[in-house]
Every structure is written in C-alpha cells, then in structure tokens.
Amino acid sequence: MTGPVEFLTGAALGTRVVVRTRIADGYTDALGYLRSCDTTHCTVETKRGTVSLALAEVVAAKEVPPPPQPRPRRHVGD
To answer: Which CATH number goes with the domain that contains 22?
Structure first.
C-alpha cells in the first residue's frame, strides 16, 4: 500500500483526486483534478480555482470517481 504523497507523485495528471492537508486549526480538503506534482507541491484544480498544496502537509489523498451528471430540470406543470 502506498502513502498519500506516493499516490500523488505517481498519479496521472488529470486524475480526479481528493487531498486532505493540515492547516493551523485542523484539516482541509481539496477536491478536483490533479494538474501538476513535483517533489514538494502538487496543484489541484477545484471548482473554486487552482490550489497549490505542500506535500509535507498532505495527510491523505485518493482518486475519486467523476462527478455525477446534472439531473434534468423539472418543468413546472409536468
């Protein structure tokens, strides 16, 4: 079994991932597409923009499935 940093450095760019990192008062998650990764940082493109994450702060990471397709809109009166 590989650790989270090994997973990120070995994952194909464009893989949809969730990455948990340590912050001052706990943890935070970044959900999106892996855009780059080197020996110190990885970049994840999220709905809110691109974030750079220090690999030293990563505590968990895994691949996640694609987002669900949007549901069709319901028409009033149907």
So the answer is: 2.30.30.520
d(CA 10, CA 42): 11
- Cβ pair 4, 55 in contact under 8 A: no
Identify each DSSP E strand in 1-78 by its residue range. Answer: 16-23, 26-37, 41-46, 49-54, 58-63
CA 13 centroid distance within chain: 11
Q: What is the pTM of this model?
A: 0.86
Q: Total structural domains in the chain? A: 1
pLDDT in tens, 44-78: 999 999 999 999 999 999 999 998 888 888 877 65
